[in-house]
Protein backbone atom coordinates (compact mmCIF):
# COMPACT_ATOMS: atom_id res chain seq x y z
CA UNK A 1 0.00 0.00 0.00
CA UNK A 2 1.39 3.36 -1.02
CA UNK A 3 1.03 6.43 1.14
CA UNK A 4 1.04 9.81 -0.53
CA UNK A 5 1.73 12.80 1.64
CA UNK A 6 0.50 15.94 -0.08
CA UNK A 7 1.30 19.59 0.52
CA UNK A 8 -1.94 19.98 2.48
CA UNK A 9 -0.96 17.27 4.99
CA UNK A 10 2.59 18.63 5.36
CA UNK A 11 1.19 22.13 5.97
CA UNK A 12 -1.26 20.77 8.57
CA UNK A 13 1.59 19.04 10.44
CA UNK A 14 3.74 22.18 10.21
CA UNK A 15 0.82 24.25 11.51
CA UNK A 16 0.49 22.04 14.60
CA UNK A 17 4.28 22.01 15.14
CA UNK A 18 4.45 25.81 14.78
CA UNK A 19 1.70 26.22 17.38
CA UNK A 20 3.51 23.90 19.85
CA UNK A 21 6.84 25.70 19.32
CA UNK A 22 5.16 29.12 19.51
CA UNK A 23 3.44 28.29 22.81
CA UNK A 24 6.67 26.83 24.20
CA UNK A 25 8.62 29.95 23.22
CA UNK A 26 5.94 32.21 24.73
CA UNK A 27 6.17 30.29 28.01
CA UNK A 28 9.98 30.53 27.91
CA UNK A 29 10.03 34.27 27.15
CA UNK A 30 7.35 34.95 29.75
CA UNK A 31 9.14 32.78 32.32
CA UNK A 32 12.49 34.52 31.84
CA UNK A 33 10.87 37.98 32.04
CA UNK A 34 8.87 37.02 35.15
CA UNK A 35 11.88 35.43 36.90
CA UNK A 36 14.07 38.47 36.13
CA UNK A 37 11.55 40.85 37.70
CA UNK A 38 10.81 38.42 40.55
CA UNK A 39 14.53 37.92 41.28
CA UNK A 40 14.94 41.66 41.78
CA UNK A 41 12.55 41.45 44.75
CA UNK A 42 13.39 37.90 45.90
CA UNK A 43 17.10 37.13 45.22
CA UNK A 44 16.67 33.42 46.00
CA UNK A 45 14.89 33.04 42.61
CA UNK A 46 18.24 33.64 40.87
CA UNK A 47 19.42 30.28 42.20
CA UNK A 48 16.86 28.40 40.07
CA UNK A 49 16.52 31.03 37.41
CA UNK A 50 15.47 29.08 34.33
CA UNK A 51 16.13 25.60 33.03
CA UNK A 52 18.62 24.70 35.82
CA UNK A 53 20.52 27.95 35.25
CA UNK A 54 21.92 29.14 38.56
CA UNK A 55 22.54 32.87 38.37
CA UNK A 56 22.87 33.40 42.13
CA UNK A 57 26.65 33.95 41.90
CA UNK A 58 26.13 36.63 39.24
CA UNK A 59 23.35 38.22 41.30
CA UNK A 60 25.50 38.46 44.42
CA UNK A 61 28.49 39.69 42.32
CA UNK A 62 26.61 42.57 40.68
CA UNK A 63 22.90 43.23 40.22
CA UNK A 64 23.56 45.35 37.11
CA UNK A 65 25.41 42.53 35.36
CA UNK A 66 22.60 40.17 36.37
CA UNK A 67 20.02 42.45 34.72
CA UNK A 68 22.21 42.91 31.61
CA UNK A 69 22.68 39.13 31.24
CA UNK A 70 18.96 38.42 31.68
CA UNK A 71 18.05 41.16 29.20
CA UNK A 72 20.38 39.44 26.73
CA UNK A 73 18.39 36.25 27.38
CA UNK A 74 15.00 38.00 27.17
CA UNK A 75 15.57 39.71 23.79
CA UNK A 76 16.38 36.48 21.85
CA UNK A 77 13.51 34.69 23.68
CA UNK A 78 11.02 37.41 22.62
CA UNK A 79 12.39 37.45 19.06
CA UNK A 80 12.05 33.64 18.83
CA UNK A 81 8.41 33.87 19.99
CA UNK A 82 7.81 36.70 17.49
CA UNK A 83 9.34 34.59 14.73
CA UNK A 84 6.94 31.74 15.37
CA UNK A 85 4.05 34.18 15.79
CA UNK A 86 4.71 35.33 12.20
CA UNK A 87 4.87 31.70 11.03
CA UNK A 88 1.62 30.78 12.82
CA UNK A 89 0.01 33.95 11.41
CA UNK A 90 0.99 32.83 7.89
CA UNK A 91 -1.24 29.77 8.19
CA UNK A 92 -4.24 31.84 9.26
CA UNK A 93 -4.36 34.93 7.08
CA UNK A 94 -4.06 32.81 3.92
CA UNK A 95 -0.84 34.43 2.72
CA UNK A 96 0.55 30.96 2.10
CA UNK A 97 -1.41 30.34 -1.09
CA UNK A 98 0.09 27.29 -2.77
CA UNK A 99 -1.67 28.12 -6.05
CA UNK A 100 0.11 31.49 -6.12
CA UNK A 101 3.14 31.11 -3.84
CA UNK A 102 5.00 34.16 -5.06
CA UNK A 103 3.24 37.21 -3.69
CA UNK A 104 4.64 40.47 -2.29
CA UNK A 105 3.18 39.78 1.16
CA UNK A 106 4.99 36.45 1.54
CA UNK A 107 8.24 38.02 0.28
CA UNK A 108 7.86 40.71 2.96
CA UNK A 109 7.25 38.08 5.67
CA UNK A 110 10.33 36.05 4.59
CA UNK A 111 12.51 39.18 4.72
CA UNK A 112 11.07 40.07 8.13
CA UNK A 113 11.79 36.53 9.41
CA UNK A 114 15.35 36.85 8.05
CA UNK A 115 15.84 40.12 9.98
CA UNK A 116 14.42 38.53 13.15
CA UNK A 117 16.80 35.54 12.75
CA UNK A 118 19.67 37.99 12.38
CA UNK A 119 18.51 39.78 15.55
CA UNK A 120 18.33 36.49 17.48
CA UNK A 121 21.80 35.56 16.21
CA UNK A 122 23.37 38.91 17.09
CA UNK A 123 21.80 39.18 20.55
CA UNK A 124 22.63 35.53 21.34
CA UNK A 125 26.22 36.15 20.21
CA UNK A 126 26.35 39.23 22.42
CA UNK A 127 24.86 37.26 25.34
CA UNK A 128 27.38 34.41 24.93
CA UNK A 129 30.30 36.87 24.86
CA UNK A 130 28.90 38.73 27.86
CA UNK A 131 28.53 35.48 29.83
CA UNK A 132 32.11 34.55 28.81
CA UNK A 133 33.39 37.93 30.00
CA UNK A 134 31.58 37.57 33.34
CA UNK A 135 33.09 34.09 33.73
CA UNK A 136 36.56 35.55 33.08
CA UNK A 137 35.95 37.90 36.04
CA UNK A 138 35.87 34.82 38.26
CA UNK A 139 32.09 34.61 38.65
CA UNK A 140 30.57 31.14 38.49
CA UNK A 141 28.22 31.02 35.46
CA UNK A 142 25.94 28.25 34.20
CA UNK A 143 26.40 26.60 30.78
CA UNK A 144 25.37 28.63 27.70
CA UNK A 145 22.79 25.95 26.77
CA UNK A 146 20.92 26.46 30.04
CA UNK A 147 20.91 30.23 29.44
CA UNK A 148 18.95 29.53 26.20
CA UNK A 149 21.24 31.69 24.05
CA UNK A 150 23.25 28.94 22.36
CA UNK A 151 23.56 28.49 18.59
CA UNK A 152 24.10 32.12 17.62
CA UNK A 153 26.09 31.10 14.52
CA UNK A 154 23.23 28.85 13.35
CA UNK A 155 20.74 31.73 13.61
CA UNK A 156 23.07 34.01 11.63
CA UNK A 157 23.54 31.29 9.01
CA UNK A 158 19.76 30.85 8.79
CA UNK A 159 19.30 34.63 8.39
CA UNK A 160 21.67 34.65 5.40
CA UNK A 161 19.86 31.67 3.83
CA UNK A 162 16.49 33.39 4.36
CA UNK A 163 17.76 36.64 2.81
CA UNK A 164 18.75 34.65 -0.30
CA UNK A 165 15.33 32.92 -0.36
CA UNK A 166 13.73 36.37 0.05
CA UNK A 167 15.54 37.57 -3.07
CA UNK A 168 14.39 34.46 -4.97
CA UNK A 169 10.81 35.19 -3.88
CA UNK A 170 11.19 38.82 -4.95
CA UNK A 171 12.14 37.69 -8.46
CA UNK A 172 9.39 35.06 -8.35
CA UNK A 173 6.83 37.73 -7.45
CA UNK A 174 7.94 39.82 -10.44
CA UNK A 175 7.58 36.79 -12.76
CA UNK A 176 4.19 35.90 -11.26
CA UNK A 177 2.92 39.48 -11.76
CA UNK A 178 4.17 39.43 -15.34
CA UNK A 179 2.50 36.07 -15.92
CA UNK A 180 -0.77 37.37 -14.43
CA UNK A 181 -0.69 40.41 -16.71
CA UNK A 182 -0.10 38.36 -19.86
CA UNK A 183 -3.27 37.98 -21.86
CA UNK B 1 4.96 52.29 -21.66
CA UNK B 2 5.66 53.33 -25.27
CA UNK B 3 3.37 50.60 -26.65
CA UNK B 4 -0.20 51.89 -26.86
CA UNK B 5 -3.11 49.45 -27.16
CA UNK B 6 -5.79 50.81 -29.49
CA UNK B 7 -8.25 48.01 -28.86
CA UNK B 8 -11.04 50.41 -27.88
CA UNK B 9 -10.58 52.33 -31.19
CA UNK B 10 -10.88 49.14 -33.24
CA UNK B 11 -13.85 47.97 -31.17
CA UNK B 12 -15.59 51.31 -31.82
CA UNK B 13 -14.85 51.04 -35.57
CA UNK B 14 -16.33 47.53 -35.70
CA UNK B 15 -19.15 48.61 -33.33
CA UNK B 16 -18.36 45.69 -31.04
CA UNK B 17 -18.90 45.65 -27.27
CA UNK B 18 -16.43 44.26 -24.75
CA UNK B 19 -18.83 41.44 -23.90
CA UNK B 20 -19.22 40.44 -27.54
CA UNK B 21 -15.46 40.53 -28.14
CA UNK B 22 -14.88 38.53 -24.96
CA UNK B 23 -17.25 35.82 -26.16
CA UNK B 24 -15.81 35.69 -29.68
CA UNK B 25 -12.14 35.78 -28.63
CA UNK B 26 -12.58 33.43 -25.68
CA UNK B 27 -10.88 35.72 -23.18
CA UNK B 28 -12.36 36.62 -19.82
CA UNK B 29 -13.76 40.12 -19.41
CA UNK B 30 -11.13 40.94 -16.79
CA UNK B 31 -8.26 39.88 -19.07
CA UNK B 32 -9.73 41.83 -21.97
CA UNK B 33 -10.12 44.83 -19.70
CA UNK B 34 -6.44 44.53 -18.67
CA UNK B 35 -5.52 44.57 -22.37
CA UNK B 36 -7.86 47.44 -23.23
CA UNK B 37 -6.68 49.69 -20.42
CA UNK B 38 -3.02 49.12 -21.27
CA UNK B 39 -2.21 47.37 -17.98
CA UNK B 40 -1.09 44.18 -19.75
CA UNK B 41 2.63 43.39 -19.61
CA UNK B 42 2.53 40.98 -22.56
CA UNK B 43 0.17 39.55 -25.17
CA UNK B 44 0.38 36.03 -26.54
CA UNK B 45 0.60 35.62 -30.34
CA UNK B 46 -2.41 33.30 -30.16
CA UNK B 47 -4.48 36.02 -28.41
CA UNK B 48 -3.35 38.66 -30.89
CA UNK B 49 -4.20 36.32 -33.77
CA UNK B 50 -7.74 35.72 -32.47
CA UNK B 51 -8.36 39.41 -31.73
CA UNK B 52 -7.19 40.35 -35.27
CA UNK B 53 -9.37 37.61 -36.75
CA UNK B 54 -12.48 38.74 -34.85
CA UNK B 55 -11.93 42.47 -35.44
CA UNK B 56 -10.78 41.88 -39.05
CA UNK B 57 -7.67 44.00 -38.64
CA UNK B 58 -3.88 43.87 -38.51
CA UNK B 59 -1.75 43.72 -35.31
CA UNK B 60 -0.59 47.26 -36.15
CA UNK B 61 -4.17 48.49 -35.88
CA UNK B 62 -4.28 47.35 -32.26
CA UNK B 63 -0.71 48.03 -31.14
CA UNK B 64 1.05 51.32 -31.71
CA UNK B 65 4.56 52.44 -30.78
CA UNK B 66 4.86 55.98 -29.41
CA UNK B 67 8.27 57.43 -28.62
CA UNK B 68 7.95 58.68 -25.03
CA UNK B 69 11.09 60.85 -25.28
CA UNK B 70 9.70 62.76 -28.26
CA UNK B 71 6.39 63.48 -26.55
* Structural class based on helices, strands and sheet pairing of chain B: mainly alpha
- In DSSP terms (H or I, runs of 4 or more residues), the helix count of chain A works out at 5
- N-to-C SSE series of chain B? EHHHHHE
Helix content of chain B: 40-55%
Instruction: From the alpha carbons, calculate the radius of gyration of chain B and give it in angstroms.
Output: 12 Å
Distance between the termini of chain A: 44 Å
Mean pLDDT of chain B: 89
> Count of helices of chain B?
5
| Assembly state | heterodimer
Strand content of chain B: 5-15%
Arithmetic mean of pLDDT of chain A: 89
Instruction: Report the uncertain regions of chain A.
Output: none
Can you tell me the residue ranges of chain B where pLDDT is under 50 for at least 5 consecutive residues? none
State the main characteristics.
heterodimer; A: 183 residues; mainly alpha; 5 helices; 0% strand; elongated; B: 71 residues; two-stranded antiparallel ribbon; 2 strands; 54% helix
Description:
The complex is a heterodimer of chains A (183) and B (71). With 183 residues, chain A is mainly α. Chain A has five helices and no strands. In chain A, α3 (63-92) runs antiparallel to α4 (104-136). The termini of chain A are far apart. A two-stranded antiparallel ribbon of chain B has the order 1-2. Chain B is globular, with a radius of gyration of 12 Å. At the A-B interface, loops of A face α3 of B.
Summarize the structure.
By secondary structure, chain A is mainly α. Chain A is 73% helix and 0% strand.
Amino acid sequence: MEFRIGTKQILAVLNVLSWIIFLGLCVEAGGIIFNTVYALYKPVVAQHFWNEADLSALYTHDKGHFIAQTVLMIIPAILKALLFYLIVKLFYNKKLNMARPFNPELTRVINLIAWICMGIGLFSFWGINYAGWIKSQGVSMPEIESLRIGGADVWLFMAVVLFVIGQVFKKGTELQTESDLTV
Amino acid sequence: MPIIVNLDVMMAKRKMSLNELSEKVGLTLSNLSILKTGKAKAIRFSTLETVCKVLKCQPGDILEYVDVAEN
